[in-house]
Amino acid sequence: MNRKFITIGEIMLRLTPPHYDKIRMASSFEASYGGSEANIALALANLGIDSTFFTVVPDNSLGKSAVRMLRSNDVHCSPVILSTPEQTPTHRLGTYYLETGYGIRPSKVIYDRKFSAITEYDFSEFDIDGLLEGFDWLHMSGITPALSKSCADFTMSCIRKAKEKGLIVSFDGNFRSTLWTWDEARDFCTQCLPYVDVLLGIEPYHLWKDESDHSKGDYKDDIPLQPSYEQQDSIFQILVERYPNLKCIARHVRYAHSGSENSLMAFLWYQGHTFESRLFTFNVLDRVGGGDAFASGLIYAMMHDYKPMDMVNFAVASSVIKHTIRGDANITDDAESIKNLMNMSFDIRR
Fold first, then answer.
1. Given this model, what pLDDT does residue 203 score?
2. Beta bridge partners of residue 185, listed in sequence order
3. β-sheet bridge partners, residue 171
4. Which residue, among 249, 232, 229, 235, has the nearest Cα to 298 in the 3D structure?
5. Which residues contact 88 (CB under 8 A, 6 or more apart)?
6. Cβ within 8 Å of residue 125, ≥6 positions away
7. Cβ-based burial of 316 (10 A; exposed 0-12, middle 13-18, buried ≥19)
8. 3-state class (DSSP) for residue 257
């Protein structure tokens, strides 16, 4: 069954100094486009999934260029709103600057996305029912609601409407400390979780509000970022007990040996059991979007009814391949190449 997938979020202009240069030394920048939800739409479309992206961009050359890039990768963009200065006064496309790390020097991101078109758009009268009509799967992240109150209200309304219409809802917590506080993120995710079928990422396992044991303190003090199988299984069980609506939970675990060499593995809870992927060690060309590639790989595997161990290994392999591709998204148009990496096959394909 070829499911119809839609995701909602912000697409941004990405500016990167070439040749691993530092921003303060750069005399030129390479331009591309990205953003968490857009990255997932791009990855799934390239793998043959009927994929649609909704956002608001300014009706100017930057906004149109971002949409053109999505369309060139087979992402449906018919719902995208090209806003006028009257609709979004500052009339901006969000931007971020990426300083790509190398060796022992980590990557660095500077956001310039305040007052972007999607944050200023008035969604109060928007037809969410019409937007979601005909789709089987909605994906949202914790980044979009962090952008503004209107975006948070719109995200919550979309999730509730999706469940009302019978869509599968996946959600990636994607906590961004530069956009909102931990308490704000926790409060929002607590509202979301009763409507979520597929929970992704690292932070969601800490983002539920329970005055008895999780109302205070840094999440890193509660749950390790590199847990053992037993620790992760325990976390999954707590989540499922509290939110029996959850059908699948997955998180990837990163080991950063340096800015240029990482290892990845993942845990998956599915059909009552916790599964642990193999560990992949690899060199990093471009780390941004690795989590989105993991999410898109898991969604693709679920849509194609993979066995649980194949699901989690395919998701990790999708993320690993993304680390070898410049730009935000995993532009891989052949699932077989991801399966080959799953099986640790590196032979040339002829």
1. 55
2. none
3. 140, 199
4. 249
5. 56, 58, 117, 120, 121
6. none
7. buried
8. coil
The span from the CA of 44 to the CA of 334, in Å, is 11
Model confidence pLDDT, tens digit, residues 42-60? 999 999 999 999 999 999 9
> In angstroms, rounded to a whole number, what is the distance separating the alpha carbons of residues 192 and 157?
10
Report strand pairing: 30-34 vs 280-283.
Answer: unpaired
Residue 7 DSSP code: E
Is the torsion defined by CA of 181, 286, 66, 303 positive or negative? negative
Amino acid at 336: E
User: What torsion, rounded to 10 degrees, do the Cα atoms 251, 282, 329, 245 define?
Assistant: -10
- Are 42 and 325 in contact by the 8 Å Cβ rule? The answer is no
Distance CA(285)–CA(271), nearest Å, equals 35
H-helix or E-strand spanning residue 265: strand 261-270
CA nearest neighbour of 269 among 291, 290, 238, 225: 238
Q: Which two three-digit tokens encode residue 217?
A: 């303190």
Q: How many CB atoms lie within 10 A of CB 149?
A: 9
3-state secondary structure of 275: strand
What is the 3 state secondary structure string of 192-213? Answer: HHHHCCEEECCHHHCCCCCCCC
| Max CA separation in the chain (angstroms) | 59
Average pLDDT of the residues of the chain: 90
Q: What is the pLDDT of residue 214?
A: 45
Helical ranges in the chain per DSSP H: 36-46, 61-72, 117-120, 128-132, 144-147, 149-164, 182-192, 219-222, 229-242, 290-303, 308-322, 335-342
Q: Which one-letter DSSP state was computed for residue 19?
A: T
